[in-house]
Amino acid sequence: MADLDARDVPVDPTSQERLSASRLEYRVVDLSDPAQLRGFARADARGFLDKEPDDETIRVMGEMMSGRRNIGVYAPGADLPVATVDSWVTPMTVPGDAGAHLDMWAISIVTVAATHRRRGIARNLLEGELRAAASAGVPIAGLTATEATIYGRYGFGPAIPVSRVRVDARRAGGVTLPAADGATTVEYLEPEALLAALGEVHERARLDRPGDIPGWPLRWRRMAGLVPGDERSRAVRGVRAVDADGGTRGVLAYTLDELPDEFGADFAIRHLDAETPEALRALWAFAVNHDLIRTVHADLRPIDDPLPWLVANQRAVQTTVHDHGWLRILDVPAVLGARSYRAPLDLVLRVSDPLGLAEGSWRLRVGQDGKGVIDVTTDAPDVELGVDALSSLYLGGVSAPTLRAAGRISASAETAAAIQNAFGTAAAPALTIWY
Ligand SMILES: CC(C)(COP(=O)(O)OP(=O)(O)OC[C@H]1O[C@@H](n2cnc3c(N)ncnc32)[C@H](O)[C@@H]1OP(=O)(O)O)[C@@H](O)C(=O)NCCC(=O)NCCS
């Protein structure tokens, strides 16, 4: 886990001053005060179009938020904030040896009350988070977004695309497993065992998946159907994939959503995580080969998920690729030095940044060992790009030739190809959770 606790980082004085000019108080929320906790939880629910949280929901939200740095924007004398944001420092896996990671400033619960929108409050929240993270020495920020149009202006780039998949189970022709997979079995789990398996498998599997981050207890409880007030909770079922030694190597939490007017259901995957290809295949086979199923749905799958190659009929698998993990580099040398590369490289990058945090020119040299050495330089650049584009390229999930073709980076075709060879990864980056 990260050494730095975001709760120790003071609020950003610039955003504080700017918002106070509009008679709004920007401050850290004290969740030990029941009135402040209630107001923060209610503002969160309102911002994300949820119903009013009951006492139990507020208590559970308080548990999760207590490990985070929660900021509210308040009109004078109010307990219910007009805007919210929270953040924590978390490891994010980067390309390299298993467990290679970078500390990331994760940002969540960005809401502004409908009565206070479009007057610059979100800008102050986001810029405040980025300045605070940079001042604390955190080299990168990340988030997942409700809309793809909000965060580019602050220097975030979509970096971890994922697939939403829909399998027509009746046309798919089933998943046929290789004979060698015979030692892997699938077993049902009781809810508490499902909860434990979700956390354990994710904690191991994420270490091999650039872009992924740890989950947290409330997330796994929600996936396992153990959060009070979740109407679908009693519909949640879970299974695990077990290897020849009895070890849990994969886990699947799902619901079966009954179809009207026929005896059948849609199989909705809440979370699917696997450490080995055998476990992943076994869990896909469990879902797609399940009796009485019309469709199988899942989201947040890596874009190179083998599913289309597992079924007899690839046309039964529809995949929609969409943006999911957004990154925002704050310290160029720190992030470029933290990952490994797949090919040697020697080039000068000139990075522009609307907030000035990551602005500059650096030479990146990658040797045969795949390690990068980064130096400040005044040499002419080989590539000029915004911090958002560099953030998109960082994990190899977005192609440099594609960004060049889109006019998002300025470089020769040869330079873009060289960046792609070095930054590309064997497996697509992945982020298997929302935050
Ligand atoms: C998205 C949201 C936080 C924006 O808050 P806001 O205070 O109205 O935003 P600001 O007034 O600071 O706007 C800053 C910039 O973002 C733009 N913007 C704001 N909301 C936007 C949206 N939904 N889509 C596209 N652009 C948006 C503004 O036009 C402005 O652009 P500019 O600086 O280039 O002129 C707010 O609408 C909200 O709470 N939405 C519901 C919850 C949600 O979706 N949160 C995001 C979670 S990932």
From TrEMBL:
Residues 219-329 form the Eis-like acetyltransferase domain. InterPro entries: Acetyltransf_17, Acetyltransferase_Eis, Acyl_CoA_acyltransferase, Eis_dom, NAcTrfase_Eis, SCP2_sterol-bd_dom_sf. Acetyl-CoA binds at V110, T111, V112, R118, R119, G120, I121, A122, R123, T146, E147. Keywords: Acyltransferase, Transferase. GO terms for molecular function: aminoglycoside N-acetyltransferase activity. The active site is at Y151, Y435. Pfam families: Acetyltransf_17, Acetyltransf_9, SCP2_2. Residues 332-431 form the Enhanced intracellular survival protein domain. One of its GO terms (biological process) is aminoglycoside antibiotic catabolic process. Belongs to the acetyltransferase Eis family. Homohexamer; trimer of dimers. This is Enhanced intracellular survival protein. It comes from Microbacterium azadirachtae.
